Amino acid sequence: MSNSLVGIIMGSKSDWKTMIHCSNTLKKFKVKHEVKVISAHRTPERLHRFLNEAKRNKIEIIIAGAGGAAHLAGVAASLTTLPVLGVPIESKLKGLDSLLSTVQMPSGIPVGTLAIGKAGSINAALLAISILSTKYEKIYKKLKIYRKSFEKKVPKKPF
Ligand code: RP5
């Protein structure tokens, strides 16, 4: 048993430079997570195995980053009832292909899709934290503190 609450998967090692921001954000909130390279088309068996184990290991949220014909989040969502958050990775088409592949799920199997690239990677972690905060008081408290300090960073005037 891993004790992780979140599983971060990504289609390629090359996605790590984006997904590291997701992992770092979870770390700041001390949310235990595991990180794996799993591709829907290159390693489909690894994906099946991971999702079966995720349920047994009490992982509560899956975050999937993929680029190009980015079907990882959608396929993962089809194989589990855990909530799946999708991060479209920047690509040769600036991530627009990744975004549309991730976000345009037909009704029935949802993927909570975030923004392209680093912002989406950070926000996937923050959304996972927000979901977990409804159950875990410690995470809720940290999220409240983060939001307060976040607001303070915004200047009242533009000059
Ligand atoms: C996708 O293809 C991956 O998620 C990655 O974003 C993209 C390119 O992969 P590499 O060719 O860099 O391994 O499956």
Q: End-to-end span in angstroms?
A: 52 Å
Low-pLDDT parts are none
- Kindly state the mean pLDDT as a whole number? 97
Ions and ligands = 5-O-phosphono-beta-D-ribofuranose
Can you list the strand order of the major beta sheet?
2-1-3-4-5
Order of helices and strands: EHEHEHEHEHH
State the helical fraction: 40-55%
**How many DSSP E strands?**
5
- By secondary-structure content and strand pairing, the structural class works out as alpha/beta
Please indicate the percent range of residues in DSSP E strands (runs of 2 or more). Answer: 15-25%
List keywords for this structure.
binds 5-O-phosphono-beta-D-ribofuranose, alpha/beta, single chain, 159 residues, 46% helix, 6 helices
Fold and architecture overview:
By secondary structure, the chain is α/β, with parallel strands linked by helices. 46% of the residues lie in helices and 16% in strands. It contains six helices and five strands. The chain has helices spanning 16-28, 44-56, 72-79, 96-103, 118-132, 137-152, and strands at 6-10, 33-37, 61-67, 84-89, 112-113. Strands 2-1-3-4-5 form a five-stranded parallel sheet, sandwiched between helices. Helix 1 (16-28) runs parallel beside helix 5. The longest helix has 16 residues, at 137-152. It is globular, with a radius of gyration of 16 Å. The mean pLDDT is 97.
